Amino acid sequence: MDNKPSYDELKTKCDDFQAQIIRFLKVEQDLVDARSKLDRDLSRFKSIQTYSQRVLAAESIEEFADITIESVVETFEVECSAFFVFDKTRNMLIVQSLFGFDDDTHRNCQLDSGWISSRGFHKNGKVIIEQVEPDSVPFGTAGLYKVILSPYYDEDGTFHGMLTGGVSRSKRAYYDEITNQLIPSFMVFTQQMSAMLQNFEAKRFLDMKVHERTAQVMQQKKEIETINEELTRQKDELQKTLEDLRQAQTQLVQSEKMASLGQLVAGIAHEINNPVNFISAGVESLSRNLDEIKQVLDIYHKVTVNNVVGKLTEIEELKKKIEYQEAIREINKLIESIKNGTMRTTEIVKGLRTFSRLDEDILKTADIHEGIDSTLILLRNKYKNRIEIEKNYGILPHIECYPGQLNQVFMNILSNAIDAIDNKGVIKISTSVFKKCIRISIKDSGYGIPENLKDKIFDPFFTTKGVGKGTGLGLSISQGIIEKHNGCIEVQSKSGEGTEFIISIPVSQEIS
Ligand SMILES: Nc1ncnc2c1ncn2[C@@H]1O[C@H](COP(=O)(O)OP(=O)(O)OP(=O)(O)O)[C@@H](O)[C@H]1O
Ligand SMILES: [Mg+2]
Fold it and tell me: Which pTM does this prediction carry?
Protein backbone atom coordinates (compact mmCIF):
# COMPACT_ATOMS: atom_id res chain seq x y z
CA MET A 1 0.00 0.00 0.00
CA ASP A 2 1.29 3.38 -0.93
CA ASN A 3 1.52 5.62 2.20
CA LYS A 4 2.74 8.75 0.43
CA PRO A 5 0.50 11.72 0.96
CA SER A 6 -1.46 12.88 -1.92
CA TYR A 7 -0.87 16.24 -3.52
CA ASP A 8 -4.05 17.56 -2.01
CA GLU A 9 -3.08 16.49 1.41
CA LEU A 10 0.31 18.12 1.05
CA LYS A 11 -1.27 21.29 -0.26
CA THR A 12 -3.65 21.43 2.67
CA LYS A 13 -0.80 20.97 5.13
CA CYS A 14 1.25 23.55 3.35
CA ASP A 15 -1.62 26.02 3.54
CA ASP A 16 -1.99 25.27 7.26
CA PHE A 17 1.70 25.96 7.80
CA GLN A 18 1.46 29.15 5.85
CA ALA A 19 -1.56 30.30 7.86
CA GLN A 20 0.29 29.38 11.05
CA ILE A 21 3.38 31.33 9.97
CA ILE A 22 1.22 34.33 9.10
CA ARG A 23 -0.41 34.09 12.53
CA PHE A 24 3.00 33.84 14.22
CA LEU A 25 4.29 36.80 12.23
CA LYS A 26 1.19 38.75 13.21
CA VAL A 27 1.61 37.82 16.86
CA GLU A 28 5.27 38.79 16.62
CA GLN A 29 4.31 42.12 15.04
CA ASP A 30 1.66 42.60 17.74
CA LEU A 31 4.32 41.91 20.37
CA VAL A 32 6.70 44.40 18.79
CA ASP A 33 3.87 46.96 18.60
CA ALA A 34 2.86 46.29 22.20
CA ARG A 35 6.50 46.61 23.28
CA SER A 36 6.88 49.91 21.46
CA LYS A 37 3.55 51.12 22.91
CA LEU A 38 4.73 50.13 26.39
CA ASP A 39 8.01 51.96 25.82
CA ARG A 40 6.17 55.09 24.76
CA ASP A 41 3.76 54.85 27.69
CA LEU A 42 6.71 54.42 30.04
CA SER A 43 8.46 57.41 28.60
CA ARG A 44 5.23 59.43 28.92
CA PHE A 45 4.82 58.42 32.54
CA LYS A 46 8.41 59.50 33.16
CA SER A 47 7.60 62.82 31.50
CA ILE A 48 4.50 63.16 33.69
CA GLN A 49 6.70 62.55 36.71
CA THR A 50 9.16 65.21 35.60
CA TYR A 51 6.27 67.56 34.92
CA SER A 52 4.89 67.03 38.45
CA GLN A 53 8.24 68.04 39.93
CA ARG A 54 8.62 71.06 37.65
CA VAL A 55 5.14 72.40 38.22
CA LEU A 56 5.67 72.28 41.99
CA ALA A 57 7.99 75.27 41.64
CA ALA A 58 5.32 77.40 39.89
CA GLU A 59 4.69 80.65 41.71
CA SER A 60 1.67 81.86 39.76
CA ILE A 61 -1.19 80.28 37.87
CA GLU A 62 0.29 81.69 34.65
CA GLU A 63 3.59 79.93 35.34
CA PHE A 64 1.68 76.76 36.25
CA ALA A 65 -0.22 76.83 32.93
CA ASP A 66 2.96 77.59 30.97
CA ILE A 67 4.84 74.64 32.46
CA THR A 68 1.81 72.38 31.87
CA ILE A 69 1.42 73.09 28.15
CA GLU A 70 5.18 72.90 27.52
CA SER A 71 5.07 69.46 29.13
CA VAL A 72 2.02 68.40 27.06
CA VAL A 73 3.96 69.16 23.86
CA GLU A 74 7.05 67.38 25.13
CA THR A 75 5.20 64.33 26.46
CA PHE A 76 2.63 63.66 23.76
CA GLU A 77 4.49 64.63 20.59
CA VAL A 78 1.86 67.17 19.65
CA GLU A 79 2.61 70.44 17.91
CA CYS A 80 0.75 72.85 20.14
CA SER A 81 -1.13 72.94 23.40
CA ALA A 82 -3.58 75.20 25.26
CA PHE A 83 -4.57 75.44 28.88
CA PHE A 84 -8.21 76.47 29.40
CA VAL A 85 -9.82 77.52 32.66
CA PHE A 86 -13.56 77.44 33.16
CA ASP A 87 -14.99 80.84 34.10
CA LYS A 88 -18.11 80.04 36.14
CA THR A 89 -19.60 83.50 36.00
CA ARG A 90 -19.34 83.76 32.21
CA ASN A 91 -19.92 80.02 31.69
CA MET A 92 -16.99 79.88 29.29
CA LEU A 93 -13.63 78.25 28.82
CA ILE A 94 -10.95 80.95 28.72
CA VAL A 95 -7.41 80.43 27.49
CA GLN A 96 -4.91 80.75 30.30
CA SER A 97 -1.86 79.81 28.30
CA LEU A 98 -0.87 78.76 24.77
CA PHE A 99 2.14 76.97 23.33
CA GLY A 100 3.10 76.32 19.74
CA PHE A 101 0.56 78.63 18.06
CA ASP A 102 2.18 80.98 15.53
CA ASP A 103 -0.61 83.46 15.68
CA ASP A 104 -1.00 85.45 18.90
CA THR A 105 -4.68 86.20 18.18
CA HIS A 106 -5.60 82.86 19.79
CA ARG A 107 -4.41 84.18 23.09
CA ASN A 108 -7.94 85.46 23.77
CA CYS A 109 -9.62 82.30 22.58
CA GLN A 110 -12.88 81.42 24.36
CA LEU A 111 -15.21 78.41 24.14
CA ASP A 112 -18.81 79.06 25.02
CA SER A 113 -21.29 77.04 26.99
CA GLY A 114 -22.77 75.45 23.84
CA TRP A 115 -19.37 74.15 22.75
CA ILE A 116 -18.73 72.78 26.27
CA SER A 117 -22.15 71.07 26.51
CA SER A 118 -21.86 69.54 23.05
CA ARG A 119 -18.71 67.69 24.23
CA GLY A 120 -20.44 66.68 27.48
CA PHE A 121 -17.71 68.37 29.53
CA HIS A 122 -19.91 70.06 32.15
CA LYS A 123 -20.14 66.82 34.05
CA ASN A 124 -17.65 63.98 34.05
CA GLY A 125 -16.69 64.32 30.40
CA LYS A 126 -14.03 62.01 28.96
CA VAL A 127 -10.95 62.69 26.89
CA ILE A 128 -11.86 62.96 23.21
CA ILE A 129 -10.00 63.26 19.95
CA GLU A 130 -11.52 65.46 17.27
CA GLN A 131 -10.84 65.85 13.62
CA VAL A 132 -11.07 69.61 13.13
CA GLU A 133 -13.13 71.17 10.35
CA PRO A 134 -10.96 73.73 8.57
CA ASP A 135 -13.38 76.62 9.16
CA SER A 136 -14.46 75.73 12.69
CA VAL A 137 -13.73 78.20 15.48
CA PRO A 138 -11.32 78.29 17.21
CA PHE A 139 -9.23 75.20 16.32
CA GLY A 140 -9.97 75.05 12.59
CA THR A 141 -9.25 78.74 12.05
CA ALA A 142 -6.06 78.29 14.08
CA GLY A 143 -4.98 75.84 11.37
CA LEU A 144 -5.29 72.67 13.45
CA TYR A 145 -6.02 69.33 11.94
CA LYS A 146 -6.64 67.12 14.93
CA VAL A 147 -7.03 67.97 18.62
CA ILE A 148 -7.12 65.99 21.85
CA LEU A 149 -9.46 67.57 24.40
CA SER A 150 -9.14 66.57 28.03
CA PRO A 151 -11.47 68.15 30.61
CA TYR A 152 -10.45 68.35 34.26
CA TYR A 153 -12.55 68.57 37.40
CA ASP A 154 -12.34 69.60 41.06
CA GLU A 155 -12.37 67.05 43.83
CA ASP A 156 -16.14 67.39 44.09
CA GLY A 157 -16.54 66.81 40.34
CA THR A 158 -17.10 70.44 39.35
CA PHE A 159 -15.87 71.31 35.87
CA HIS A 160 -12.68 73.33 36.22
CA GLY A 161 -11.10 73.56 32.77
CA MET A 162 -9.62 71.75 29.79
CA LEU A 163 -6.23 70.73 28.56
CA THR A 164 -5.69 70.55 24.81
CA GLY A 165 -3.06 69.24 22.44
CA GLY A 166 -3.15 69.63 18.69
CA VAL A 167 -1.47 68.97 15.37
CA SER A 168 -1.64 71.60 12.64
CA ARG A 169 -2.78 70.91 9.16
CA SER A 170 0.40 72.25 7.58
CA LYS A 171 2.88 70.46 9.81
CA ARG A 172 1.03 67.31 10.56
CA ALA A 173 3.51 65.29 8.52
CA TYR A 174 6.19 66.02 11.12
CA TYR A 175 4.19 64.73 14.00
CA ASP A 176 2.64 61.42 14.75
CA GLU A 177 -1.01 61.69 14.10
CA ILE A 178 -3.02 61.86 17.29
CA THR A 179 -4.47 58.43 17.87
CA ASN A 180 -6.75 56.89 20.43
CA GLN A 181 -3.68 55.31 22.06
CA LEU A 182 -2.84 58.72 23.44
CA ILE A 183 -6.06 58.89 25.39
CA PRO A 184 -5.13 56.87 28.54
CA SER A 185 -1.81 58.62 29.16
CA PHE A 186 -3.30 62.04 28.31
CA MET A 187 -6.01 61.28 30.83
CA VAL A 188 -3.43 60.35 33.46
CA PHE A 189 -1.53 63.55 32.68
CA THR A 190 -4.71 65.65 33.02
CA GLN A 191 -5.66 63.97 36.28
CA GLN A 192 -2.17 64.54 37.64
CA MET A 193 -2.28 68.15 36.46
CA SER A 194 -5.72 68.63 38.05
CA ALA A 195 -4.49 67.28 41.41
CA MET A 196 -1.42 69.49 41.20
CA LEU A 197 -3.61 72.46 40.29
CA GLN A 198 -5.87 71.86 43.27
CA ASN A 199 -2.81 71.64 45.53
CA PHE A 200 -1.44 74.76 43.95
CA GLU A 201 -4.70 76.66 44.47
CA ALA A 202 -5.04 75.39 48.03
CA LYS A 203 -1.47 76.48 48.69
CA ARG A 204 -2.16 79.83 47.04
CA PHE A 205 -5.28 80.19 49.16
CA LEU A 206 -3.26 79.32 52.25
CA ASP A 207 -0.51 81.73 51.22
CA MET A 208 -3.13 84.40 50.71
CA LYS A 209 -4.62 83.66 54.13
CA VAL A 210 -1.15 83.67 55.68
CA HIS A 211 -0.45 86.90 53.85
CA GLU A 212 -3.74 88.41 55.02
CA ARG A 213 -3.14 87.19 58.56
CA THR A 214 0.42 88.51 58.49
CA ALA A 215 -0.92 91.84 57.25
CA GLN A 216 -3.50 91.81 60.05
CA VAL A 217 -0.87 90.89 62.62
CA MET A 218 1.41 93.61 61.27
CA GLN A 219 -1.48 96.06 61.47
CA GLN A 220 -2.26 94.94 65.03
CA LYS A 221 1.43 95.17 65.87
CA LYS A 222 1.46 98.70 64.48
CA GLU A 223 -1.65 99.57 66.48
CA ILE A 224 -0.12 98.07 69.63
CA GLU A 225 3.04 100.04 68.98
CA THR A 226 0.98 103.20 68.60
CA ILE A 227 -0.90 102.40 71.81
CA ASN A 228 2.41 101.64 73.48
CA GLU A 229 3.85 104.93 72.31
CA GLU A 230 0.76 106.71 73.59
CA LEU A 231 1.04 104.84 76.90
CA THR A 232 4.72 105.67 77.17
CA ARG A 233 3.89 109.30 76.44
CA GLN A 234 1.14 109.26 79.07
CA LYS A 235 3.48 107.52 81.50
CA ASP A 236 6.11 110.19 80.90
CA GLU A 237 3.49 112.88 81.41
CA LEU A 238 2.31 111.17 84.60
CA GLN A 239 5.90 110.84 85.72
CA LYS A 240 6.36 114.55 85.15
CA THR A 241 3.09 115.38 86.92
CA LEU A 242 4.17 113.16 89.79
CA GLU A 243 7.52 114.91 89.87
CA ASP A 244 5.74 118.29 89.88
CA LEU A 245 3.44 117.08 92.63
CA ARG A 246 6.40 115.81 94.63
CA GLN A 247 8.04 119.17 94.30
CA ALA A 248 4.81 120.93 95.26
CA GLN A 249 4.46 118.57 98.22
CA THR A 250 8.06 119.19 99.25
CA GLN A 251 7.42 122.90 99.06
CA LEU A 252 4.23 122.50 101.08
CA VAL A 253 5.97 120.32 103.63
CA GLN A 254 8.72 122.87 103.74
CA SER A 255 6.25 125.70 104.29
CA GLU A 256 4.39 123.57 106.82
CA LYS A 257 7.68 123.01 108.60
CA MET A 258 8.42 126.72 108.43
CA ALA A 259 4.96 127.51 109.82
CA SER A 260 5.28 125.09 112.72
CA LEU A 261 8.85 126.28 113.22
CA GLY A 262 7.50 129.85 113.51
CA GLN A 263 4.95 128.74 116.13
CA LEU A 264 7.62 126.78 117.94
CA VAL A 265 10.06 129.66 117.95
CA ALA A 266 7.37 131.96 119.38
CA GLY A 267 6.53 129.41 122.09
CA ILE A 268 10.16 128.79 122.94
CA ALA A 269 10.88 132.54 123.03
CA HIS A 270 8.09 132.81 125.57
CA GLU A 271 9.45 129.87 127.50
CA ILE A 272 12.95 131.27 127.61
CA ASN A 273 11.63 134.72 128.47
CA ASN A 274 10.31 133.53 131.86
CA PRO A 275 13.56 132.24 133.35
CA VAL A 276 15.51 135.06 131.70
CA ASN A 277 13.15 137.54 133.39
CA PHE A 278 13.78 135.73 136.65
CA ILE A 279 17.50 135.98 136.15
CA SER A 280 17.53 139.63 135.11
CA ALA A 281 15.14 140.68 137.90
CA GLY A 282 17.18 138.58 140.37
CA VAL A 283 20.45 140.08 139.17
CA GLU A 284 18.99 143.61 139.62
CA SER A 285 17.78 142.95 143.20
CA LEU A 286 21.04 141.16 143.94
CA SER A 287 23.11 144.12 142.81
CA ARG A 288 20.88 146.49 144.88
CA ASN A 289 21.28 144.33 147.99
CA LEU A 290 25.02 143.93 147.37
CA ASP A 291 25.35 147.76 147.04
CA GLU A 292 23.85 148.14 150.51
CA ILE A 293 26.04 145.38 151.98
CA LYS A 294 29.00 147.03 150.29
CA GLN A 295 28.18 150.23 152.30
CA VAL A 296 28.45 148.17 155.51
CA LEU A 297 31.74 146.67 154.32
CA ASP A 298 33.05 150.15 153.42
CA ILE A 299 32.53 151.27 157.04
CA TYR A 300 34.30 148.07 158.25
CA HIS A 301 37.29 149.02 156.07
CA LYS A 302 37.45 152.44 157.73
CA VAL A 303 37.59 151.03 161.33
CA THR A 304 40.80 151.90 163.21
CA VAL A 305 41.90 151.43 166.86
CA ASN A 306 40.89 155.02 167.60
CA ASN A 307 37.40 155.04 166.05
CA VAL A 308 36.29 151.47 166.57
CA VAL A 309 33.40 152.22 168.94
CA GLY A 310 31.99 155.03 166.79
CA LYS A 311 32.27 153.02 163.58
CA LEU A 312 30.64 149.93 165.07
CA THR A 313 27.72 152.08 166.19
CA GLU A 314 27.55 153.50 162.62
CA ILE A 315 27.57 149.96 161.22
CA GLU A 316 24.80 148.83 163.54
CA GLU A 317 22.68 151.84 162.58
CA LEU A 318 23.26 151.16 158.84
CA LYS A 319 22.44 147.47 159.30
CA LYS A 320 19.18 148.40 160.90
CA LYS A 321 18.46 150.90 158.16
CA ILE A 322 19.12 148.55 155.34
CA GLU A 323 17.57 145.55 157.12
CA TYR A 324 20.85 143.68 156.80
CA GLN A 325 19.65 140.20 157.91
CA GLU A 326 16.69 140.40 155.51
CA ALA A 327 19.01 141.45 152.67
CA ILE A 328 21.32 138.45 153.31
CA ARG A 329 18.31 136.07 153.25
CA GLU A 330 17.05 137.77 150.07
CA ILE A 331 20.46 137.35 148.44
CA ASN A 332 20.29 133.62 149.07
CA LYS A 333 16.82 133.46 147.64
CA LEU A 334 17.86 135.52 144.61
CA ILE A 335 20.83 133.25 143.99
CA GLU A 336 18.49 130.28 144.21
CA SER A 337 16.07 131.90 141.79
CA ILE A 338 18.85 132.79 139.32
CA LYS A 339 20.12 129.21 139.58
CA ASN A 340 16.60 127.98 138.75
CA GLY A 341 16.29 130.36 135.81
CA THR A 342 19.65 129.25 134.48
CA MET A 343 18.72 125.60 134.89
CA ARG A 344 15.42 126.12 133.08
CA THR A 345 17.14 127.94 130.23
CA THR A 346 19.76 125.20 130.01
CA GLU A 347 16.96 122.61 129.92
CA ILE A 348 15.20 124.39 127.08
CA VAL A 349 18.43 124.78 125.12
CA LYS A 350 19.17 121.10 125.65
CA GLY A 351 15.64 120.20 124.54
CA LEU A 352 16.08 122.29 121.42
CA ARG A 353 19.37 120.61 120.67
CA THR A 354 17.94 117.14 121.09
CA PHE A 355 14.90 117.95 119.04
CA SER A 356 16.64 119.59 116.17
CA ARG A 357 19.10 116.84 115.37
CA LEU A 358 18.93 117.35 111.59
CA ASP A 359 20.44 113.99 110.81
CA GLU A 360 17.53 112.91 108.69
CA ASP A 361 19.27 110.39 106.50
CA ILE A 362 21.55 108.67 108.99
CA LEU A 363 20.33 105.69 110.98
CA LYS A 364 21.35 106.06 114.62
CA THR A 365 20.58 104.32 117.86
CA ALA A 366 18.58 106.69 120.00
CA ASP A 367 16.65 106.91 123.23
CA ILE A 368 12.99 107.43 122.39
CA HIS A 369 12.18 108.85 125.81
CA GLU A 370 14.77 111.57 125.28
CA GLY A 371 13.04 112.50 122.01
CA ILE A 372 9.57 112.64 123.60
CA ASP A 373 10.86 114.68 126.54
CA SER A 374 12.64 117.23 124.39
CA THR A 375 9.47 117.61 122.31
CA LEU A 376 7.44 118.18 125.45
CA ILE A 377 9.87 120.89 126.59
CA LEU A 378 9.43 122.70 123.31
CA LEU A 379 5.64 122.41 123.51
CA ARG A 380 5.39 123.38 127.17
CA ASN A 381 4.12 126.85 126.41
CA LYS A 382 1.12 125.30 124.63
CA TYR A 383 0.01 123.04 127.45
CA LYS A 384 1.36 124.37 130.76
CA ASN A 385 -1.20 125.18 133.47
CA ARG A 386 -3.85 123.56 131.29
CA ILE A 387 -2.95 120.00 130.46
CA GLU A 388 -1.42 117.43 132.75
CA ILE A 389 1.21 115.20 131.13
CA GLU A 390 1.17 111.70 132.62
CA LYS A 391 4.23 109.66 131.70
CA ASN A 392 4.24 105.92 132.06
CA TYR A 393 7.58 105.01 130.52
CA GLY A 394 8.66 101.37 130.32
CA ILE A 395 12.24 100.18 130.08
CA LEU A 396 13.12 100.62 126.45
CA PRO A 397 16.22 99.63 124.55
CA HIS A 398 17.80 102.25 122.35
CA ILE A 399 16.38 101.77 118.88
CA GLU A 400 17.81 102.12 115.41
CA CYS A 401 16.10 105.11 113.82
CA TYR A 402 16.29 108.56 112.29
CA PRO A 403 15.88 110.47 115.60
CA GLY A 404 15.21 113.91 114.07
CA GLN A 405 12.37 112.45 111.99
CA LEU A 406 10.83 110.55 114.92
CA ASN A 407 10.88 113.78 116.96
CA GLN A 408 8.89 115.35 114.14
CA VAL A 409 6.30 112.53 114.58
CA PHE A 410 6.08 113.11 118.35
CA MET A 411 5.76 116.84 117.71
CA ASN A 412 2.85 116.29 115.25
CA ILE A 413 0.95 113.84 117.45
CA LEU A 414 1.49 115.74 120.70
CA SER A 415 0.51 119.03 118.98
CA ASN A 416 -2.69 117.41 117.71
CA ALA A 417 -3.41 116.05 121.22
CA ILE A 418 -2.86 119.50 122.75
CA ASP A 419 -5.06 121.08 120.04
CA ALA A 420 -7.80 118.53 120.76
CA ILE A 421 -8.09 119.54 124.41
CA ASP A 422 -10.20 122.67 124.64
CA ASN A 423 -9.61 123.62 128.23
CA LYS A 424 -8.19 121.34 130.86
CA GLY A 425 -7.28 117.74 130.25
CA VAL A 426 -4.70 114.96 130.37
CA ILE A 427 -2.24 113.50 127.90
CA LYS A 428 -0.98 110.05 128.86
CA ILE A 429 2.26 108.86 127.26
CA SER A 430 3.10 105.17 127.73
CA THR A 431 5.93 103.15 126.26
CA SER A 432 6.69 99.43 126.24
CA VAL A 433 8.50 96.70 124.31
CA PHE A 434 6.57 94.02 122.48
CA LYS A 435 8.04 91.32 120.20
CA LYS A 436 11.21 93.14 119.12
CA CYS A 437 9.24 96.36 118.65
CA ILE A 438 8.76 99.34 120.84
CA ARG A 439 5.25 100.64 121.34
CA ILE A 440 4.44 104.24 122.10
CA SER A 441 0.91 105.27 123.05
CA ILE A 442 -0.11 108.95 123.18
CA LYS A 443 -3.62 109.24 124.56
CA ASP A 444 -5.46 112.51 125.04
CA SER A 445 -8.72 113.38 126.76
CA GLY A 446 -9.70 115.70 123.88
CA TYR A 447 -12.78 115.94 121.70
CA GLY A 448 -12.00 112.77 119.75
CA ILE A 449 -12.39 111.96 116.07
CA PRO A 450 -15.86 111.33 114.58
CA GLU A 451 -16.26 107.84 113.10
CA ASN A 452 -16.75 109.12 109.53
CA LEU A 453 -13.46 111.04 109.58
CA LYS A 454 -11.22 108.28 110.94
CA ASP A 455 -10.34 107.02 107.46
CA LYS A 456 -9.34 110.45 106.29
CA ILE A 457 -7.04 111.81 108.96
CA PHE A 458 -3.90 110.34 107.38
CA ASP A 459 -4.76 111.79 103.95
CA PRO A 460 -2.49 114.62 102.93
CA PHE A 461 -4.16 118.04 103.32
CA PHE A 462 -7.06 116.69 105.38
CA THR A 463 -7.71 119.05 108.23
CA THR A 464 -10.63 120.12 110.38
CA LYS A 465 -8.71 123.07 111.68
CA GLY A 466 -9.39 126.60 110.53
CA VAL A 467 -7.58 128.40 107.71
CA GLY A 468 -4.04 129.24 108.75
CA LYS A 469 -4.21 126.83 111.69
CA GLY A 470 -3.64 123.45 110.09
CA THR A 471 -2.25 122.31 106.78
CA GLY A 472 -3.46 118.73 107.18
CA LEU A 473 0.03 117.36 106.55
CA GLY A 474 1.06 116.46 110.10
CA LEU A 475 -0.31 112.91 110.22
CA SER A 476 0.42 112.15 106.57
CA ILE A 477 4.07 113.09 107.09
CA SER A 478 4.16 111.16 110.37
CA GLN A 479 2.74 108.04 108.72
CA GLY A 480 5.39 108.32 105.99
CA ILE A 481 8.15 108.54 108.59
CA ILE A 482 6.83 105.54 110.57
CA GLU A 483 6.56 103.48 107.40
CA LYS A 484 10.13 104.42 106.54
CA HIS A 485 11.03 102.85 109.90
CA ASN A 486 9.09 99.70 108.93
CA GLY A 487 6.66 100.44 111.70
CA CYS A 488 2.97 101.24 111.89
CA ILE A 489 0.71 103.85 113.36
CA GLU A 490 -2.85 103.19 114.50
CA VAL A 491 -5.58 105.31 115.93
CA GLN A 492 -8.40 104.61 118.36
CA SER A 493 -10.85 107.34 119.12
CA LYS A 494 -14.33 108.02 120.37
CA SER A 495 -16.02 111.29 119.66
CA GLY A 496 -16.17 113.30 122.87
CA GLU A 497 -13.95 110.94 124.85
CA GLY A 498 -10.46 111.28 123.44
CA THR A 499 -7.97 109.79 121.04
CA GLU A 500 -5.10 107.36 121.30
CA PHE A 501 -2.33 107.07 118.73
CA ILE A 502 -0.26 103.88 118.96
CA ILE A 503 3.07 103.72 117.20
CA SER A 504 5.11 100.51 116.79
CA ILE A 505 8.68 100.58 115.52
CA PRO A 506 11.13 97.67 115.26
CA VAL A 507 14.08 97.94 117.62
CA SER A 508 16.44 97.07 114.80
CA GLN A 509 15.91 98.00 111.19
CA GLU A 510 17.93 95.04 109.87
CA ILE A 511 15.75 92.23 111.14
CA SER A 512 12.47 93.87 110.06
N1 LIG B 1 -5.65 113.82 118.81
C2 LIG B 1 -6.61 114.21 117.95
N3 LIG B 1 -7.87 114.45 118.38
C4 LIG B 1 -8.84 114.81 117.51
N5 LIG B 1 -8.67 114.97 116.19
C6 LIG B 1 -7.43 114.74 115.70
C7 LIG B 1 -6.34 114.36 116.54
N8 LIG B 1 -5.25 114.19 115.77
C9 LIG B 1 -5.64 114.48 114.50
N10 LIG B 1 -6.93 114.82 114.46
C11 LIG B 1 -7.72 115.15 113.25
O12 LIG B 1 -6.97 114.81 112.12
C13 LIG B 1 -6.81 115.93 111.27
C14 LIG B 1 -5.51 115.81 110.55
O15 LIG B 1 -4.41 115.93 111.42
P16 LIG B 1 -3.04 116.46 110.88
O17 LIG B 1 -2.09 116.50 112.00
O18 LIG B 1 -2.69 115.63 109.71
O19 LIG B 1 -3.39 117.88 110.32
P20 LIG B 1 -3.74 119.18 111.15
O21 LIG B 1 -3.38 118.98 112.57
O22 LIG B 1 -5.13 119.53 110.84
O23 LIG B 1 -2.77 120.22 110.47
P24 LIG B 1 -1.19 120.32 110.67
O25 LIG B 1 -0.79 119.20 111.58
O26 LIG B 1 -0.64 120.12 109.30
O27 LIG B 1 -0.94 121.62 111.20
C28 LIG B 1 -6.92 117.11 112.18
O29 LIG B 1 -7.33 118.27 111.48
C30 LIG B 1 -7.97 116.63 113.16
O31 LIG B 1 -9.27 116.79 112.63
MG1 LIG C 1 -1.46 118.21 113.19
Answer: 0.49
